[in-house]
Amino acid sequence: MGEYANVLLEVDSDGIGTVVINRPKALNALNAATVYELDKLFDELATNSDVKVVIITGSGEKSFVAGADIVEMKDMTAIEGRQWGQLAQRVFSKIEDLPKPVIAAVNGYALGGGCELAMACDIRIASEKAKFGQPEVSLGIPPGFGGTQRLARLVGKGRAKELLFTGDMIDAAEAYRIGLANQVVTPEELMDKAKAMAHKIISRATVAVQVCKSAINRGLDVDLNSGIAYEAEVFGLCFATQDQKEGMAAFIEKRKANFIGK
Ligand code: DAK
Predict the structure, then answer these.
(1) Which residues on neighbouring strands pair with residue 111, listed in sequence order?
(2) Span 206-252: which CATH code?
């Protein structure tokens, strides 16, 4: 894997790739260099067969990602602002569409672009210390990395508008209540819980998990009939895998399935 200045990657022997956004002095704010690194890193993660599930977290105790880097953004022209938004949108869509599950382990502030990064992940596990919000309107801009779209899809139109219009920060318990966080755990157990979930997913049939991800992602962008038609296709496809044969044989033989990921 490549060398990175603003992100760390650790791949363990069980197939978990842990990505750490590592700019603790700026509370892990996303500057362009970091977003370019994420772009390259996620290309590598997509093709690295040693990685089955990805966990993203922030370096340090305080912050997941405190947003896009305001220092870098403040003097942008309109054209630069659009290019910046398009770059990060493309990278976040790459994360969302990675053909492997991505879990955000939200260890602290997930604000602006940080909340948007967490929302581009499949699942969000929040520490009790996490804080979520889209404070962009207090900086004179709307969210620009997919926040106006993904937040409404996750928590509904009314709650998304309230969070975007007020710029209010919410704690982990409220994020859980509105469906933005999947789980809330203590700061000490955050990485263990994220890894436990990753292990469980890794133990399941890889292709089946992959097609669940693509069917949900694609299905939410189309009408129900198109979505269920896609589901039928990927359902059929799984009958071409050895894991489908093994999973059903194991059930009938009353034993644990031994999946090979194919
Ligand atoms: N950018 C740059 N530096 C940041 C930062 C950020 N987003 N957040 C924090 N820092 C830096 C602080 O400036 C400070 O640096 P020094 O002064 O030590 O050099 C250091 O991190 C520690 O922060 P604080 O001293 O402020 O720490 P506190 O505990 O007092 O406060 C805080 C923590 C998270 C509440 C506070 O730092 C804060 O409010 N940060 C800003 C949060 C925020 O507004 N985030 C949203 C950023 S805007 C678009 C493209 C992008 C976007 C939108 C549109 N288009 C192209 C259309 C996205 C925008 C955003 O994400």
Answers:
(1) 133
(2) 1.10.12.10
Instruction: Summarize pLDDT for 39-93 with one digit per residue, the tens.
Output: 999 999 999 999 999 999 999 999 999 999 999 999 999 999 999 999 999 999 9
Beta bridge partners of 10: 18
- Range(s) within the chain of domains with CATH label 3.90.226.10: 7-202
Residue 179 per-residue DSSP state: T
26 CA distance to ligand 1 middle (Å): 7
Pocket-testing residue among 25, 70, 168, ligand 1, by greatest number of atoms within 8 A of Cβ: 70
Spatial distance between the Cα atoms of 46 and 187, rounded to a whole number of angstroms = 29
Task: Determine the straight-line distance between the first and last CA of the chain, rounded to whole angstroms.
Answer: 24
Question: 69: CA distance to ligand 1 center in Å?
Answer: 6
Please indicate whether residue 147, judged by its CB atom, sits closer than 6 Å to ligand 1. no
Read off the tokens for 156: 């509904």
CATH architecture of 7-202: Alpha-Beta Complex (3.90)
Parts of the chain belonging to CATH 1.10.12.10:
206-252
Q: Is the CB of 120 inside a 6 Å radius of any atom of ligand 1?
A: no
Just list the catalytic residues: 116, 136
What pLDDT was estimated at residue 3?
Answer: 83
